[in-house]
Amino acid sequence: MFFAYGIDGQMLDALREAFVSQRERIVLVTGAYNLIWTHTNVRKTLEARLRKLRTDYLDVMLFLGVMDEQQFPAHVREELVRLRDEGKVRRIGLSTHDRKLAGRLASEGQFDTLMIRYNAAHRGAEIDIFPHLSAHDPAIISYTATRW
User: Is 41 a domain residue?
Assistant: First the structure.
């Protein structure tokens, strides 16, 4: 799995070369940042990443940095779903610190991937998120898994 954002030219060249013969073996994850004070255009971000990476789809597209539900508005959710329906991304999701939101989204089943904080010091996901996973089985990516 390769999480692509802010990648340099050498990394881009290596990825492009790998795509030629191994694209189906590479899981490419990227995201659009939640720009709290400005409008985030998820489609524009995705299309720029596709051009830069010279690929016609991404495996996972996340909306990043969601601290509460107001930062994940309906138009962003709908655009992510449209991008998946169009085949530009295979899976969609978000990165959030809001465990209650992640738990509710897991139980609703609209999103395929949730990036959450979960580690030995922060185990709240065991109560707020994990019990809701079985209905739709979204993928879980844990950030800060080995630290704070």
Answer: yes
Within a domain: 42:
yes
Half-sphere exposure of 43 (CA within 13 A, CB side): 11
In the chain, the number of structural domains is: 1
Farthest-apart Cα atoms in the chain, separation: 43
Q: Residue 120: inside a domain, yes or no?
A: no
Q: Is the pLDDT of residue 3 over 60?
A: no
Q: Which residues constitute the domain of residue 25?
A: 2-102
Q: Which of 101, 99, 95, 67 is nearest to 80 (CA)?
A: 95
CATH code, domain carrying 53: 3.20.20.100
pLDDT tens digits for 52-107? 888 899 999 999 989 999 889 899 999 999 999 999 999 999 999 999 999 999 99
**This prediction's pTM:** 0.85
